[in-house]
Design brief:
The chain has a single domain (2-209), classed as Protein Transport Mog1p, Chain A (3-Layer(aba) Sandwich). Helices cover 20% and strands 41% of the residues. The chain contains 3 helices and 12 strands. Strand 7 and strand 8 (133-140) form a beta hairpin.
């Protein structure tokens, strides 16, 4: 779609997302399924994975334990092959907790808290707001501890019965200016292609009973 090559503000790119998806219609990515307490979630592969070989193209970490309020928790993280979890530049992850009886917007406060503490000029932009799903962008223009480094995330909070889940894609890179809807997307650590991918597929996760 030629016009997108000349559109670099975040607001313009987000407005063009439905048009881009409709006209370009790229092949759907391979998917993976994972059991998350009461739910079975099916979601797209991480953006860097070509085909379905997520194991061969990623470093993977998973753990079960206790979350906030003593809830049962499970986390699974993927980073590109060769990166280290202590210093990742790109991460795709799933975290589930149960039981959680409040709504997705209440859980967002829990998700945002560490970003607010760690980031200078923390900000967000909501893209999808439904009772069962809340999808938004997180902007961390720079870390207070390392001012030359910033981070951007696509965060999707989903709920199924009493299980709350967050699916997210985060990218670290050079610090960038404070967020405005007219920010030049080329200044952000996340590429337009990967942002479009994460927004589209994390907004369309399929949940069903195990």
């Amino acid at each position: 779609m030629t016009m997108l090559r000349h559109v670099f503000t975040l607001a313009a790119v987000l407005c063009a997302l439905p048009v881009w998806a409709e006209q370009s219609k790229p092949a759907a990515p391979a998917t993976m399924s994972i059991n998350l307490f009461e739910a079975k979630a099916t979601l797209a592969m991480p953006p860097w994975v070509k085909g379905a070989d997520v194991v061969g193209q990623s470093e993977i970490f998973n753990q079960r334990g206790k979350g906030g309020g003593g809830r049962k928790a499970f986390i699974q993280e993927f980073i590109p092959k060769g990166q280290k979890f202590e210093s990742w530049r790109e991460i795709y992850a799933i975290l589930a907790e149960t039981p959680y009886r409040k709504g997705v917007k209440s859980y967002r406060k829990i998700v945002d808290a560490p970003f607010k503490k760690a980031c200078t000029n923390f900000d967000t932009l909501t893209l999808l707001d439904k009772p069962e799903a809340h999808v938004y962008l997180i902007f961390c223009p720079s870390y207070k501890a390392t001012p030359t480094v910033g981070e951007m995330a696509v965060m999707a909070i989903w709920k199924y019965e009493n299980t709350i889940m967050r699916f997210y894609y985060e990218v670290r890179g050079k610090a960038f200016p404070k967020f405005t809807k007219d920010i030049d997307i080329r200044l952000l650590p996340m590429t337009q292609k990967n942002m479009n991918y994460a927004v589209k597929y994390l907004s369309g996760i399929r949940l069903e009973a195990k």
